[in-house]
Amino acid sequence: MADIIRKKQKGTDKVWFYTSTVKDHFINPKNIVLDDKIVEDMHPNGEGEVGSPACGDVMKFWIRVENGKIKKCLWKTFGCASAIASTSMLSVMVTENGGMTLEEAQKISPKEIMDRLGGLPPVKVHCSVLGDQALRQAIKDYKSKQQNKNVPLT
Ligand code: FES
Question: What count of Cα atoms within 13 Å lies in the side-chain half-sphere of residue 133?
Fold first, then answer.
């Protein structure tokens, strides 16, 4: 069981609970873009961008697909700590063990991401959807580019 961190919501009596895994991914996010140069250096072949209707925050996601698997990914957000932790975990999930196939990555659900994080406060569940949706857009973009080049999807 992950350790639990309490955070008092500013200006209210509400307390949100975060796991230590969420805290770790927020403080030390994996595959995050802090300098746009690393996106260029990765040579992404798919990219996606979505905005959250719930809060107005934005997420960008880039993938590098090789031999049908997501070998690398990067992301950038103007979202909150939960969005950062969720997308960091998502980026680990799609690239670990040699990378997921596009079909496997498309099946990842926000619940699976939250399970790996040990949960999120209910009010923050919508934040975990941002990375997932941006990833789907990036996969769609990759497939569209491949079809335009008449390259068989691998
Ligand atoms: S509140 Fe907008 S992404 Fe979390």
Answer: 15
